[in-house]
Structure formats: C-alpha cells, structure tokens
Amino acid sequence: MTGISRRLLWGGVGLLFLLRLIVAVQMPLVPDEAYYWLWSRHLQWGYLDHPFMIALWIRAGTFLWGDTPFGVRFCGLMGFGLAMFWLCQASGRFFPHRRDVGLRAVLLLNVTVMAGIGLVPATPDVPLFMFLCLSLWGFSRALSVQGQAKASWGWWMLCGVSLGLAADSKYTAVLFGAGLAGFVLFGGRALWRSAGPWLGGSCALVAVLPTLIWNADHGWAGLLKQGGRASQWHPERAGQFLGELLAGQLALLTPWVAVLCCVGLWRSRREGSLLLWLVGPALLVFLLHVTGDRVQPNWVWVLYPVLVLAGAAYAGTVRGAVLTGTLCVLLVYGQCLTGFLPLSAHLNPIARLSAGWEGMAEALSAESQEKGISVMVTDDYALASILTFQKAEHVVFMGQDSRWAYLKGLTRKTVQTALYLKDLHYGPVPAGAWALWRKDGGQPVRLYSLEMRHDLSGWIVQ
C-alpha cells in the first residue's frame, strides 16, 4: 500500500468519525440512554442491569457539556477514538509481519453498522469496547517482551486492569477474560509459569472489586439478573434463535465484513490458537443460549475486537468490504440526519427510538396542567427515564419498575391521583383511556394511552 493510499484511507476513517460526531450532536437521546443518564444523577458502584462505568462516563460528559445528547455521548465518542488507536497498535504487535494490518483492522471496524451507529448512543457497550481494546494492546505488548520477565510485568498489569474495567462496564467482559485465561493456562506457551499473568489477574480482580462489592451488598442482584438468562430452556426454538443471531450479526457487521471475519478466524487456526481462545468462551455461551432464548445483537460486541483482528490479518483483500460497508454506514447516517427514506414508523428504528420525545413531553405537560394533576406513572422504566430527561414543566414522572429499588437517592412516594401512561405501540386504545401520539415532524410514530389512577406508590424519577 502506497503512502498516498494510506493517507487517503486514514482520511476516510477521519471523515466517518466526524460524521459520527455530527450524528451524536443531532440525534435525540433514545430511552436507554436516558435511563443511564438517570444513573449518572445517582452515582453508585453498581446497578441492577449493568455495572457503574457508563454512569460515570455520562456524568463526566454532562459535567463538560450539560444535559444534552452530545454531553451524554461525549466520553463514549472519545473512548471510541482511543479504542481505534489501541486496536491498531495491538494489531501491529500481534502480526508484525503483515503489512498495514492495523489500518485494515480499523477500516473493517469503522465500516460496520454496529460501530457506525450502534456506538453513537451512550450504552455500556462503548466503555466495554474501549477497555477490551486497551486490554488487547497490553496483552500484545506483554507477549512481545515475554522473554524479559520484569519488562513484561507492567504490560500484564495494564492488561489486567483494563480487563477489570471492562467488567466494570458490562458483565460480558468475563467471557473475554475466560478466553484470555484459557490461552495463558493451556495455549501451549507455558505463560502460566511466569509471574506476569498472575500479576495481571490480580490487577483485574482489584479493578472489578467495586462491582463485586455492590453485588454482595445487594444480594448479587446484578449477577443473578444477567446469569439467570442462562436458565431458560426452549430447544424447539433454537433454530429460530440461531437464525436471528446470524441474521443480526450479518446486518451489524455488514455481510462482506462478516464473511471476512469468519474466514479470518478459521484461517487463524493454522498459526496458533490465540484468536480462537479469545472468542471461544463467548461463542460457546451464545450457542448454548440460543437453546433457551434470543441472543441480543449487541451482546456479541464483546467479540468484535478479535473478529476484526482476524479479518484484517488473515482474510485477504478488504477493499470490497470497506467500500460496501462504507456505503451502508453512510446510508444509515443519511437517514439519521435527514430521514430521506420515507419509511413508516414500524420500519424506521431510528425514528421509533429517538423522534418526538420533546414534543410528547410538552403535550403531557399541557395535559397534566389541564387535568390539574402533577404526577404521571408508567410501568416502563425507559419511558419514565426519557420523559424525565426532557424536564417537562408541571409534571413529575414516576416509575413502578423494580429497578428503582436499586437506585439510591430516589424518594418513595404515594400519590392519591395520577395519570397512568402506557405504550400501546400502534393501538388499540383501551376503554376508559384517551390516546396521545408521539410524532416525528407530524408523522405518527407511537401511540400511548392515558387514564386516571388512584392510590399509587412508586419511586419518583428526577
């Protein structure tokens, strides 16, 4: 690859990153982001759904930029930039004899729909990915100086600390850690005989202690909630769930990139078991999970650093995958920014998740003022969170979900009369209730019902 070609490709990566920043500024917050924003108003060492890291990141971003979509997403966007750098550096260390493998890995990553749009919202996947890439970089440096015991200790410690911080972001980091431990113990290099890996493992344990302590203080609620998914058993639907998993990853990776990653992973077996060890535990867990329930598409994000490494190192030319992937990402960005495709709300996930919340909050505020009722309740934690983020006047939103019991600083309250808000999707409206549409520029997106409720208790979301 010539110097000019390399500069053009890096320029393309920079352009995609700039577009991602523009989307982050322009796209309204989605409900799950608002839920994590609410966490950031009540910082603690853990929450029912995930560990604490995303709340800490959002708190830092909103401290700098205020309670705006860009403020909520700022640290995630910067973290993704660092992740690309560390992934590039790790690629060069793992495969020093393959030219431009770091650039190829960064290109493949950036042209996936998952990175292009899935990492714009502030979710636990963003810090998870950054810390996994940092852990990979530390691991690659540790292997490169393994013959110099003391020189490798610092890199093993960096690998361990970042792996622990990844687990403080999302529990699925444990699957990556299991693969890394398996390679150290059984990968054929006798790494377990040196002190470095044990130092790294100790650092990982120390880094994850806040999450473990919070779980211990709350009856292991977070670990049980996530681990409890594995207890479901519906083998008759395994084919359906597996098909949905494969189709979802083809869409998120984009088909050509997905093929390159799979081919690269298969070819990597010829030169050692490192990449297979790193993805093995997660692949096994996901394949077992489809016997009972769906594997949500974003769960597989824990595999993406290794998958793009495999595709970049072993799968041959990436030009076609980069061109088609870039086209897919640009189409998604265009739809986010302009809505040029006249899709119905049912077929437009971007509008369904992000459009019309400010107008709906204003309509609910007016409805509340007209009825003389200052409290609205809903069973949907995400709906309560996104409406709270809008800071509507004359109304307080109250959630009835059990999640609020694990969030300190919320005041439990009983109200005599409230308006009960429910997401009806597209109808029908139950008897005794009245309807309210959330709209995107005048086009109906989602239907909600309102009705009077009495003697309700819950946790105020504010």
Present the secondary structure layout.
Layout: H1 3-26, H2 31-40, H3 53-65, H4 69-94, H5 101-110, H6 113-118, H7 125-144, H8 149-167, H9 173-186, H10 195-217, H11 221-227, H12 238-253, H13 255-267, H14 274-289, H15 304-314, H16 319-338, H17 349-354, H18 357-371, E1 375-378, H19 381-389, E2 396-399, E3 412-425, E4 434-440, E5 443-461
Parallel strand pairs: 1-2, 1-3
Antiparallel strand pairs: 2-5, 3-5, 4-5
Q: Rough shape?
A: globular
Low-confidence stretches: none
Query: What amount of the residues lies in strands?
Result: 5-15%
State the end-to-end distance: 54 Å
Main sheet overview:
5 strands, mixed
Cα-atom radius of gyration: 23 Å
Would you tell me the overall average pLDDT?
Answer: 88
Quantity of strands, as a count: 5
Count of folded domains: 2
InterPro entries: LipidA_mod_glycosyltrf_83 (IPR050297), RgtA/B/C-like (IPR038731)
Subcellular location: Cell membrane
Membrane topology: Multi-pass membrane protein
Domain Glycosyltransferase RgtA/B/C/D-like: 49-214
